[in-house]
Amino acid sequence: MARVEIVFYSAMGHTEAIAQSVRVGLESVDGVEVGLLRVDELADDDAWARLDRADAIVLGSPTYMGGVSADFKRFMDQTGSRWYERTWMDKLCAGFTVGGGLSGDKQSALQAMHVFACQHGMIWISMGVGVREPGLDRLSSSIGMMAQAGNAPVAETPPAEDHATAEAFGARIARATLRWGLGRA
Amino acid sequence: MARVEIVFYSAMGHTEAIAQSVRVGLESVDGVEVGLLRVDELADDDAWARLDRADAIVLGSPTYMGGVSADFKRFMDQTGSRWYERTWMDKLCAGFTVGGGLSGDKQSALQAMHVFACQHGMIWISMGVGVREPGLDRLSSSIGMMAQAGNAPVAETPPAEDHATAEAFGARIARATLRWGLGRA
Amino acid sequence: MARVEIVFYSAMGHTEAIAQSVRVGLESVDGVEVGLLRVDELADDDAWARLDRADAIVLGSPTYMGGVSADFKRFMDQTGSRWYERTWMDKLCAGFTVGGGLSGDKQSALQAMHVFACQHGMIWISMGVGVREPGLDRLSSSIGMMAQAGNAPVAETPPAEDHATAEAFGARIARATLRWGLGRA
Amino acid sequence: MARVEIVFYSAMGHTEAIAQSVRVGLESVDGVEVGLLRVDELADDDAWARLDRADAIVLGSPTYMGGVSADFKRFMDQTGSRWYERTWMDKLCAGFTVGGGLSGDKQSALQAMHVFACQHGMIWISMGVGVREPGLDRLSSSIGMMAQAGNAPVAETPPAEDHATAEAFGARIARATLRWGLGRA
């Protein structure tokens, strides 16, 4: 049994909707338990303990001004003592982001998540889905998963293809987490 | 007369000390007025008005977990309406950061500042000092200015060379701002 | 009179077509002379002399495997002596890239151009066009200009909107170059 | 038994020396076979076949003008058909770079390697060594391994600490590769 936590920030609900699709993908693989944590729930020590026990951590944030949101960055900054203690060393990590444009500097937000993961000594799972796979990864991202949302309700945007991509990404993370867990001596 | 605002976050005082050295460099050039703004002073509309009037904005933040601090990111996110209205279009912009390591992912923090500046349509001033100039730019940064601070009081760290580099960077920003202002039709 | 050189690599013609549209935009502004240089013409000393005399240099490359093409990188690496001598210090610089996907790691290619420009001490012109401007910047890039091309002839792809964006970007670069030239003491 | 290939470019010998230390680290772990490939040996189909069979690929390049060297980028660009066929999907990947400065935009070169790895659907191994470990990671890098070399013979530079860091990084990559291999169903 592998344990994956999705830690995310969502203001308008679009990033939360993508987080739910990543969860669906993760849970589609036998042997994986998934938790969702909003960064504003992290006042709670139990929430931090869940992250400490996780085999993999998935990071999710909207792209604001070319980076993760300030609330998500607060979460990142709060991990300083875990960074110092190497608490998250060798966990798997992956990231997704949601923005209003087709490209829109979303890659910068994913780069920020990747640097963060590497500071903790984690192992980074690339997007890895969608090439030559019709109906997936319409934005052609590779570092992590990108979704694009317009100024419309969550029922309308991001489009179905982005949700399908999020599910495929979740399934990939689940398989990698099981494999990484099995390989532990 | 050109007006430059330095907007920064500092928790321990090291980034503020570098901001002061950037200011010294800026003020060493005739015809330049300089203001310092802590991001926690930006609750005040007058502070925002100062940024709106500035010919150049200098960004300063410690590097935390491979990016700007959460408080500095909050400031960035708060500029969304100015981004939409193109209020800061064609201003000059530059950035500096302070971190504990020699390299230490400080470049990521400067990249985040650069993307932010470009989202606003600003023009980015590179480091531009120090090559073949003994005693300057010991960390060999080019996107913006880097200083390195240990766990010691502000009187001891960052070292004098970093302060000299900050002054040279400030003088460069001042000259560019005057030139950019003079060229306006 | 300001002089702008566009230095680019193009294998299939799509990047060259965008370079031509950037040129149209540059030449739409009175007082700006424009040259185009393919990186494989740089065996010629005269070509390098043109770059040395330019007031602004515009960089253009397809995005290959998440970065500029190897031929374009060769050009970058060949500038080492100019970097050492600070020959291009304080020139203006901007960049554009063409890739097959909507996002597709094109931002990484533009970041590579920006770091290169900053190593030379140049000043970076952001995209700066297209927000709230219908028909421009459909990919919502900010560091530089992005175009997207499919596997089709140059007459069909990139689409007309990308060419219009390239023209607007060229005009912006022209205006900045004139202003920067006028401001020189 | 796991197989790791180190593919690298070295002009002056400093990057090759670090590659040798990464190899020493890899071979210090039982059950790991290591090959070294210079990018100019890749005219040979056998060399490509070795990369295709590898469980992990380690990328090494000097940092030139803020990125990997043009010769190393040529290697990257030559992998296009493998990218299309997903040949390297789910391999492990890591990177190291050598530059003349303490920071010196080496992070950009590592970012370029990371994007490349993610385009192939590989899994990225962070630096993960050195925090609170005296004598390791003096440059405090996290995405990959950084070494700093002056204008001196390979016997003198990079310094011993960088070689020790490269060995520790190699050992980490070896352990991860064994674990990832064991976990395969």
- Tell me the name of the CATH class of chain A: Alpha Beta
The largest chain-to-chain contact, stated as pair and per-chain residue counts, equals: A-D, 34 and 34 residues
Helix content range of chain A:
40-55%
Rg on CA atoms of chain A, Å: 15 Å
Q: Could you spell the SSE succession of chain A in H and E letters?
A: EHEHEEHHEHEEH
Count of DSSP H/I helices of chain A: 6
CATH homologous superfamily of chain A?
A: Flavodoxin domain
Strand-residue fraction of chain A? 15-25%
CATH level 3 topology of chain A:
Rossmann fold
Helix and strand content put the structural class of chain A at alpha/beta
Largest sheet of chain A: 7 strands, mixed
Mean pLDDT across the residues of chain A is 95
- Termini separation of chain A (Å)? 16 Å
State the low-pLDDT regions of chain A, or none.
none
Number of domains as seen in the coordinates of chain A: 1
Give the oligomer, counting copies of the same chain as homo and different chains as hetero: homotetramer
CATH architecture title of chain A: 3-Layer(aba) Sandwich
Give the overall shape of chain A: globular
